[in-house]
Amino acid sequence: MSNEEKNDKQQQLDQFRAYDHGKKLTTNQGLKMAEDEFSLKAGERGPTLMEDFHFREKMTHFDHERIPERVVHARGYAAHGEFQVYESMKEYTKAGFLQDPSIKTPVFVRFSTVAGSKGSFDTARDIRGFATKFYTEEGNYDLVGNNAPVFFVQDGIKFPDFVHAVKPEPHNEMPQAQSAHDTFWDFVANNQETAHAVMWHISDRAIPRSYRMMEGFGVHTFRFINEQGKISFVKFHWKPVLGVHSLVWDEAQKIGGKNPDFHRQDLYDSIENGDYPEFELGVQIIDEEDEFNFDFDILDPTKLWPEEDVPVKLIGKMTLNRNVDNVFAETEQVAFHPGHVVPGIDFSNDPLLQGRLFSYTDTQLIRLGGPNFHELPINRPVCPFHNNQRDGYGRQTINQGQTSYYKNYLANNTPTPASPEEGGYEHVHEKVEGRKVRSRSESFKEHFSQATLFWNSMSEPEKQHIIDAFSFELGKVQNKSIRQQIVDMFSNVSMSLAKEFAKNIGADIPSGEDTLITKSSPALSQENSIKTPATRKTGVILMDGFEEDVKRIIDSLNSEGVQTEIISNRLGLKRGVNGIELEADHTFETADPVLFDALYVAGGKDINEASLKKIQYYTDETFAHYKTIGATHEGKEWLDKHKLSGNSGVITEDDWKVFTRQFIEAITEHRHWSRKLTG
């Protein structure tokens, strides 16, 4: 190519890049728009209006951007199960599946990451999706949530912007499944309503140990309606029976390379082993007349309801007890929608929820090829359905008769709408009035107090992890101005937090004092979560010539619900004293310490230098990730040699019964953070 041709090509590129620069925003029809952050509502706190052509154009374009992979939540895994309510909830709602404790409602749950493509890895730093489909006798009810109770934006019209920012940057399609890049943090800095959700995203909550050990939240405010018409506002929670636990960042990154299917394999194996994941459904309820009695707007999706102010009432349990038969037919074709409700559950005027009520149907239309996605087996309700909708792509029902309209004479006016007394769905009779405006309620405009609440609620190790996470993420940001903007923004959350990570990213350290907000919510700290050894996976390093009590220890661990897998220099039977035999599940090469919750170095006399180096790698990695290490016999000698004995969470008792008890207690703690203090 000649220099002249190169110059012409460069001019074309420059013109293309500058096409939007300095221009006014318009619709795809060329209409200039005066506002691009707020959907059109009936009053500042009213519902979004259907006539909002700009919102619909923007959201429709966004929903159709990927074929056929989901735009967000592409990487997911799912399981079947059942739900039972503990006691009738008729005081609050007439929803049928929340009335009778003897009835088991089938469910299908899909867990997912948000930002990565279908081929990304499970343990990326990301919010996790937690979507549940209840197959009730009144129709399907979808509780479509995340493992964080708040979201990054307040209005549905900004959702495409947020996702565009967190996705791989369009000029080079990098980085995959990460938020550690310029466009995401540029969006954060210039949309400060993101502050609270960013704190969740940058915390340990964004790298869960497993799907079985993370909370789920409905995010939005919904309404309960009982038979008498009494209305309450409600938020939904899923509480894992095993407690809420996370990985550490170095561990999460290494797992992504060692086993990118770590979370899905954990879910699959647990169900196959009969260790069925369990979650309790909880609700926070606020009487309609108390809507304005809080120091935040209860409809704001960037705010949570502190559990100490509005307690969570546990109302039922979900058990996941069957894996899918076909990932594509079930996990990929399942279609969730927050608008799939049953009598007794209705929507609030949360503007993000209002946007989702349009967006989800639109998404399914393009992803599943047309309007009949409800007829796919995984989406089909268990109750009969009758209407005058016909034809379209993927139609499976063969309708009979000559009428497909209402009202009619030829079919005796059927199918006929059902009255509320007959179970017909009736929306809340809410008075709505106000000027048509693109605006945000004044009560939505404070963005930092609950981000500070979250920070105040963290334990010291969790706070350090947040500082480290900001330092890592912003260390990947190339634009120095964006890094500084984030420091300045989060000095409104906590001056001490901002000062700490500012040092690590080369930004100017802000001056000033911490905010006067001292309120905390202990429920937000994982350190206060349930702790149990059940289903914790322990790697057992075992060589030939092991002692007799090793088998007793392994059997005792298994009897307490701890899972054990034997690691050795080669597969096959390992022979101990007195003819005892145990079979190795892994070699040092086919396993890795990051794939286990704890390590038991059991010993064995048949050892060589190569194996000792592998054992050192396993113990050093486990120790560095604050996990429990136990050792007996020759294993104690190996730990003593590398100066690991005597540290927190390192168990080396001689009596096998005492060892087993202390080892299980240490596993129960999940991590031993004091190691960092002792070096």
From TrEMBL:
It is an enzyme of class 1 (oxidoreductase). Its EC number is 1.11.1.6. The keyword Metal-binding applies. Belongs to the catalase family. HPII subfamily. Decomposes hydrogen peroxide into water and oxygen; serves to protect cells from the toxic effects of hydrogen peroxide. PANTHER family: CATALASE, CATALASE-B. Residues 26-414 form the Catalase core domain. It catalyses: 2 H2O2 = O2 + 2 H2O. Its cofactor is heme. The lineage of its organism: Bacteria, Bacillati, Bacillota, Bacilli, Bacillales. InterPro entries: Catalase, Catalase_AS, Catalase_clade2, Catalase_clade2_helical, Catalase_core, Catalase_haem_BS, Catalase_immune_responsive, Catalase_large_C. SMART domains: Catalase. This is Catalase. Residues 1-20 are annotated as: Disordered. The keyword Protein biosynthesis does not apply.
